[in-house]
Amino acid sequence: MINNVETLSNVPHIINKGAEWFASIGTPKSTGTKIFSLSGQVKRPGNYELPMGISLRELIYEYGGGILEDRELKAVIPGGSSTPILTPDKLDVKLDFESVVEAGSMLGSAGVIVMDETTCMVNVAWRLTRFYQHESCGKCTPCREGTYWMLKILERIENGRGESGDVELLLDICNYIEGYTVCPLGDAAVPAVRSTIEHFQEEYDYHIRNKACMVKGKPVFK
Predict the structure, then answer these.
(1) Closest-CA residue to 60 (of 93, 96, 31, 106)
(2) φ, ψ of residue 12 in degrees (nearest 5)
(3) What does the pLDDT look like over 68-127, one tens digit per residue?
(4) What residue segments make up the domains of the chain, in order of their start?
(5) How far is CA 189 from the centre of its chain?
(6) pLDDT tens track for 118-159
(7) Residue 181 and residue 82: Cα distance in Å, rounded?
(8) Pair 124, 115: CB distance under 8 Å
(9) What's the pTM value of the predicted model, to 2 decimals?
(10) What's the 3-state SS for 69-94?
(11) CATH entry, 5-116, from 3.90.870.10, 3.20.20.190, 3.90.550.50, 3.10.20.600
(12) Quick check: 177 and 221 in contact, CB under 8 A?
């Protein structure tokens, strides 16, 4: 048993009501409830305990009240910062472990981060990479050097100093980090970069070509 608060809080209810009761909630493979930590550009952010298997659309629009100022949804991180982003075409994915994997991401901690049309995805990758670079203990080379150089390249792109080949270099670094680190932190740093490039490479290309942000209209750090 994983001894976290969410797991332990389920134990008394399972003891009192039985395993069959708990298994009747959610989906056949992902049973029970999950605490979804909904944040980002939504009207009602918060922690919502809901049955496993509700849709991403329900979570954002029914419980979260929709996007701030009724703007368009652009992307969602469904399971914490270490999980690949999902795009609006995945809004009807069921939030259980199996379905989110099939959609191309992971449910993870169910830390759901919502981003609207005003969000620069290059900036998202930079902010998340900055976190992982700071958290790296430096023990293993792929994580220590990989997160350092990903951050430097992303800062260069954000500053309007991006160069031809930077996107390919970022993807190469991702490949040299993933699967080669002592602990999972290095692997966790990869999805933010790889998935934003996969779904929004045009924003990276615009930054590099025009020395400005496709969304904001100017380099972020200048």
Answers:
(1) 93
(2) -60, -40
(3) 999 999 999 999 999 999 999 999 999 999 999 999 999 999 999 999 999 999 999 999
(4) 5-116, 121-210
(5) 10
(6) 999 999 999 999 999 999 999 999 999 999 999 999 999 999
(7) 15
(8) yes
(9) 0.91
(10) HHCCEEEEECCCCCCCCECHHHCCCE
(11) 3.10.20.600
(12) no
Which position has the token pair 């797991």? 7
Token representation of residue 172: 């190469």
Specify the pLDDT at position 1: 54
CA distance 110 to 136: 23
The model's confidence at residue 220, banded by pLDDT at 50, 70 and 90, is: low
CATH topology of domain 121-210: de novo design (two linked rop proteins) (1.20.1440)
Length of the chain: 222
pLDDT in tens, 170-179: 999 999 999 9
